[in-house]
Write a structure and sequence with these properties.
Blueprint (H helix, E strand, L loop, with lengths): L3 E4 L5 H12 L3 E6 L2 H10 L6 E2 L6 H11 L7 E4 L15 H26 L6 E5 L6 H5 L10 H21 L5 E5 L17 H14 L8 E3 L3 E2 L3
Parallel strand pairs: 1-2, 1-4, 2-3, 4-5, 5-6, 6-7
Antiparallel strand pairs: 7-8
Length: 235
């Protein structure tokens, strides 16, 4: 049976490449983008996909996503929350509350809005999975152990990803009894605008590797924070 997958941040980078590989493997793909021009490009590049135009940084996206999905499918099997933006300031005295709020809104509240929009349809799936694309920089364990003290990493990005990780844990604790898999993954060091200095993967390479990990996910590995290529990460 064909599975339905909803992917946010699908207009470029990892989100686009994940949409592409799921589409190539005969999944029914609902890529979510912020504007119509991106949706038109997806319709051209991935014939037969179902682009959704909504901005997950606004509450209005909940009703937009929900209405579109419910008009076209009875269930959603996989949600991949890939939408993200990079932070700028790496020093405490320079970071602004506006930057903090902007990244928290996308990385954490964007996940909340997307899953709320598809919540009813997830419950109609035989193997419902929510995969939150996190980052090793959101790991309190790794940051507090001093793993990244030599790098220049955004304050807002690290805090927003840590908040997203807490949301993942809370969702898992509530939804596990419903049979819904919730997990966070660090997708590797990817060469993007948000990539770190040690980035060694293109978005296409990362997506191709992540596809096979996501394909095998199930209820049994819910509640984990994982680098699929290296193993579990500390929250």
């Amino acid at each position: 049976m064909t599975e339905n997958v909803l992917i946010t941040g699908a207009g470029r980078g990892l989100g686009f490449e994940l949409s592409k590989i799921f589409h190539e493997n005969q999944y029914r793909v609902f890529p979510l983008v912020r504007n119509q021009s991106s949706a038109n490009k997806l319709s051209h590049d991935l014939k037969g996909c179902y682009p959704i135009v909504a901005d997950v940084s606004f509450d209005e996206s909940i009703s937009l996503i929900k209405s579109y999905l419910q008009s076209r499918t009875h269930s959603i099997d996989i949600i991949i929350n890939c939408a993200g933006i990079s932070g700028q300031e790496t020093k405490f005295n320079h970071v602004t509350t506006d930057e903090m709020k902007e990244l928290f809104n996308v990385h954490c509240l964007g996940v909340l809005r997307t899953v709320q929009a598809a919540y009813d349809l997830l419950q109609n799936s035989a193997n419902p999975r929510v995969i939150n694309i996190s980052s090793r920089l959101g790991s309190l364990g790794k940051v507090s152990s001093g793993d990244f003290t030599e790098g220049e990493f955004s304050y807002a990005y690290r805090v927003a990803k840590a908040a997203q990780n807490m949301l993942t844990v809370c969702m898992d604790q509530e939804m596990k009894s419903m049979g819904i898999h919730i997990s966070a993954i660090h997708p590797g060091e990817i060469k993007t605008t948000m990539g770190s200095g040690d980035a060694d993967l293109t978005p296409e390479e990362a997506a191709n590797q992540l596809f096979f990990w996501i394909k095998k996910t199930s209820y049994n590995n819910s509640g984990t924070f994982t680098d699929p290529f290296k193993g579990k990460l500390p929250w």
